[in-house]
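#struct-pred
JK: can someone run the complex with zinc ion? inputs below
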Amino acid sequence: MDRRDVMGLLGKLEPGNRSTGQALHRPLLVLWAIGQAVRGMPRLQRWSDVSAAVGPLIARYGGGSNYREAALHPFWALRGNDLWEVEGAEELSLTSEGRRPRLSSLDSLNPLAGLPEPVYERLVKDPELAPWAVGTLLLRFFTPAPAGLLEDLGLTGLMAGREATALRPLMGETFPDRRAIADTYGGNRVRGITPLGDGILTVFSDEKGPYADGRIPETNWIAYTGDGLSGDQQLVGGNKSMAVYQEQQRALRYWHRPYGGEWAFETWAVIVQRWLRWGTGEDGRKRKEYVWVLAPVLSPLRETWPSAVLQALAEDDGRLHDETLHATLAAGVDSGNLQLDNRERYRRLAKAARVREESRTRRSSLTTVERFLRSTTAREAVLLRSDGRCENPTCLGHPLERTDADAPLLEVDHVKDLARGGPDIPESMIALCPNCHALKTRGRGRRELQQVLLAEALRRHKEFLR
Ligand SMILES: [Zn+2]
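RT: done, structure tokens with the ligand placed:
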């Protein structure tokens, strides 16, 4: 048994779900047993001793009540995780459902129990493994760690200052391919959103892959496209795991492979927003896709996160920012009526842009992200209104040259600078040829021109809606 095997067993531990919240009986028993191992205590100990030590821990930290009853559950159930063995288990008499031994039977036989020998040996012999294992379990089940927990587990000495640094992989570790990562740290070799063997969620972003993930301009945040290559993405699988991490505000690992480079564990990150937008699937068709906005953090421990991240977490209530609603309404996608004339399409786009503008959250730290991810609704409307020609009434002549995509040379611009609060709606935006765009932004007469353009945008808007 090697490190990866031990971490793999720990990674499969899950909390029990009770009506009162998460039940952490099993993680607590494992943590206690690791504490025993690193302090040289015997691997196997009597039920009476284990229950006397672990019962109070569960009552205090694990959501249990009655001491001995609480200890009985993990003492029996943890065997199913291959992390525990009970000597003479077959001699115990079980309750009528047969799912656990009777308390009286345990008390009278008082069996020896403990970690399986290979796990215990590995923990004792490998000085890096125990802190790694403890750090991982604390992160997964006890974040933030309740005061007194490490002391009560006898793990203070082992973990002093190492709760984050004991974890593996370390930030910056690189591997040539996904197989090599899985060989070292376990986990799936293919999926984009999947835990490593230790059970901590990990996302992989490949620059060569089908998705254009990337840094959001003017921030160091990352827009990460969800799971699902073609067809509308659903909140299942990897996307479901992401939603859980977002709700619980837990840190995940972000791995990245630059074009032609190696995979690197680039950073820990927390999910600060979830979007649904229109995108293009691997099959080339339009589909709805999730975009998870990830904020890099230096460690998974919340107390190390920068205030901008904490503020974003506080401001975003975990809701879905659904851009597809507006875009659907606007473009007539899914409406079954693709024969809309330009006037009607403009009307719908303008309305949708207005709706989304009104629903736009105005909170500062997320504004840049919203600007990046917002729908192209208003822009689309303006292009439609322009009919491919510069909208400046004093234009000296629109160039005939077209782009590679056979589109007219047009810049859609906010007449008032968006950064200074100009709204994202067509009546305050205008399509300009490159020359007029330059005059509007850099020309000496730009202030007068902006007044002209603002009036023109409004006039054309009304004209189109008439
Ligand atoms: Zn022009």
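RT: quick notes.
The longest strand covers residues 263-280.
The pocket of zinc ion is lined by residues 390, 392, 395, 398, 432-433, 435-436 (CB under 6 Å).
JK: thanks, will look after standup
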